[in-house]
Structures are given as structure tokens and as C-alpha cells.
From TrEMBL:
Gene from which the chain derives: cbiM
Keywords, alphabetical: Cell membrane, Cobalamin biosynthesis, Cobalt, Cobalt transport, Ion transport, Membrane, Signal, Transmembrane, Transmembrane helix, Transport
Subunit-level organization: Forms an energy-coupling factor (ECF) transporter complex composed of an ATP-binding protein (A component, CbiO), a transmembrane protein (T component, CbiQ) and 2 possible substrate-capture proteins (S components, CbiM and CbiN) of unknown stoichimetry.
Transmembrane segments: 42-63, 75-95, 107-133, 140-159, 171-195, 202-228
Species of origin: Flavonifractor plautii ATCC 29863
Chief place where the protein resides: membrane
Protein's UniProt name: Cobalt transport protein CbiM
Length: 242
């Protein structure tokens, strides 16, 4: 049994490594998500931080509930955080203090719900700001709202609606991940456009690169979900995903 578990874990790690590598290659050819340090006025930056507080609190409560509901899913929870960290760290410099990249939050929203991703996303963004100079501390609230709150809510809602409509799991997962990614870029465009003028300008510029990235992220998320469905069905059933 132990040998079989080791083989399963090895296959999962190899699959994840290959898929992340492929998406990294795709992003190398891309040319909107993390807002850089200092690109928002202090008042706006603080305001976005305040808006995030209730979602983060709800996220901690959601994590406690999910872990109590499915104790074995702790590994999946950590994996979702790592998945979001790696994908959203594949940054491509874009326009006016921002960058294009996948978000990786759709998978976690599907498995654990959107509020859980508010906490995981905040942690991801904080570490990226401190360790990778990706994003910023003053813009942490704005980046958290767009990538860790707005995007996951859309991903979760799309997945639930499509599954209720009897859509295949692969279709629901792809649409959820891709649309969550795109909505994140829409929110970021609004955040920058309101301050710097021209929401449409940001939407048009970011769309050129973010749409292909969203499609790539959707496909990658489907493959990862299929692997989890094959090797972690017990945990997915406990989380009421299947």
C-alpha cells in the first residue's frame, strides 16, 4: 500500500511539473494582474484593503469548516495554494505598473469555495510581494480583491451553475478557471483605470495577452482536476465537488 501511495504521489508531482512548465512556455510568448508598489494612491490602496477584510475573515471560517469536514483534504488545500503561487508568479511585464500572468485560483475555488481562496490568495500575494517583488505591500489589498476574491467568486459560481446544468466536469472546470482569470483582469483594469484614467484602455491592452493565458489556464486546470479526480476521489467526494 505504501509503495502504491509513493507511486501515486510521484505521478502527481511529475504531471504537475510538466504542466506548469508548459504553461510557463506559453507565458513567455505573452505580453494583468498584480499592481506594482506605489501605483495606487494611499486612500485607494487602504480602501481596497478594508474591503478585503470581511472576505478574509469568512475565508478563515471556511477553511476551518472544510478541514473539519474533510481532514484528508489538507494536502489538497496546500496544493491549491502552491498551484496559485507558481502560476501567478509567471509574470510578464505589461502596462502601467501591472503584468500579465495566469492566476491559478480557479482550482482552489472549485475544490474549497471562493472564501477559502481569499486567505490562500492573500498569503500567496504577500509572499510574492516580499520575496519576488511581484505586486506590492501598499497594493496588497487591491491585488487580493481582484485575484483572490473577485476571480474565485466567478470561478466558483460558473462551476456550480454549469454542473447544475449537467455540463461535463471538464467543460465546467475549463470555463470556471478561464472566466475567473478573465474577470480578475477586468477588475484590475477597473482599479487602474479609475485612478489613471481610461478603463477601456487597460481592458483593450490587457485583453491581447490575457485571453490566451486564460484559455491556457483553463486547459491546465482541467488536466490537474482530471488527475485529482482519478487519484483523490475520496477527498473530492468529502468536499462535495463530485
Amino acid at each position: 500500500m505504501k509503495h502504491m501511495m509513493n507511486q501515486r504521489n510521484t505521478r502527481l508531482l511529475r504531471t504537475a511539473a510538466v504542466l506548469v512548465g508548459l504553461l510557463g512556455v506559453l507565458t513567455m510568448s505573452a505580453s494583468a494582474m498584480h499592481i506594482a508598489e506605489g501605483y495606487l494612491p494611499v486612500g485607494w490602496a487602504a480602501g481596497w484593503g478594508v474591503v478585503c477584510v470581511p472576505f478574509v475573515v469568512a475565508g478563515f471560517l471556511s477553511i476551518q469548516k472544510k478541514v473539519a469536514q474533510a481532514p484528508k483534504a489538507k494536502i489538497l488545500l496546500a496544493m491549491c495554494g502552491a498551484f496559485a503561487f507558481v502560476l501567478s508568479a509567471l509574470k510578464i511585464p505589461s502596462f502601467e505598473g501591472s503584468c500579465s500572468h495566469p492566476t491559478g485560483v480557479g482550482l482552489g475555488a472549485i475544490l474549497f469555495g471562493p472564501m477559502t481562496m481569499a486567505v490562500l490568495g492573500l498569503i500567496v500575494l504577500l509572499f510574492q510581494a516580499l520575496l519576488l517583488a511581484h505586486g506590492g505591500l501598499t497594493t496588497l489589498g487591491a491585488n487580493t480583491f481582484s485575484m483572490a476574491i473577485a476571480g474565485p467568486i466567478v470561478s466558483w459560481a460558473v462551476y456550480k451553475l454549469l454542473r447544475k446544468a449537467n455540463a461535463p466536469a471538464a467543460v465546467a472546470v475549463f470555463a470556471a478557471a478561464a472566466l475567473g482569470d478573465l474577470f480578475t483582469y477586468v477588475v484590475t483594469s477597473v482599479q487602474l483605470g479609475v485612478v489613471h484614467g481610461g478603463i477601456g484602455k487597460f481592458l483593450m491592452i490587457f485583453a491581447v495577452t490575457q485571453i490566451p493565458l486564460a484559455i491556457a489556464e483553463g486547459l491546465l486546470t482541467v488536466v490537474v482536476f482530471n488527475v485529482l479526480e482519478k487519484y483523490s476521489r475520496e477527498e473530492l467526494h468529502a468536499l462535495c465537488v463530485l
